[in-house]
Amino acid sequence: MATKLYVGNLSYSTDNEGLQRLFSEYGALVSASVIVDRQTGTSKGFGFVEFEDDSCAKKAVSVLNGREVDGRRIRVSEARERPDRQ
After folding, report:
1. Where is 33: in which H helix or E strand?
2. Residues pairing with 33 in the sheet
3. Which of 71, 4, 15 lies closest to 43 in space, CA to CA?
4. Interatomic CA distance for residues 51 and 59, integer angstroms
């Protein structure tokens, strides 16, 4: 079952490819995306990575959470479902 991770405090220069490169060391990815502002197209400083395998996701969290990447200490945790907006 796929596991989705939240990646926060990303450098604004980190792009989808950089995020994918960083996390693919720990296992096969379903997706990796940096969230961007719709109007400006600039990074919002966070993103999501989805692993095919739960154990790979857990390993990535344990190794990468708090690690410095592109000059910033990133936060990595299991993503939580977003509540429905009304």
Report:
1. strand 29-36
2. 48
3. 15
4. 11
Amino acid at 23: F
Q: Where are the alpha helices (DSSP H) in 1-86?
A: 16-24, 54-64
Structure tokens at 36: 């961007």
- What are the pLDDT digits (tens) for 22-76? 999 999 999 999 999 999 999 999 999 999 999 999 999 999 999 999 999 999 9
- The residues near 12 (Cβ < 8 Å, ≥ 6 apart) are 42, 43, 45
Question: What 8-state DSSP symbol labels residue 65?
Answer: T
From edge to edge, which strands make up the β-sheet containing 43-51? 29-36, 43-51, 3-8, 75-78
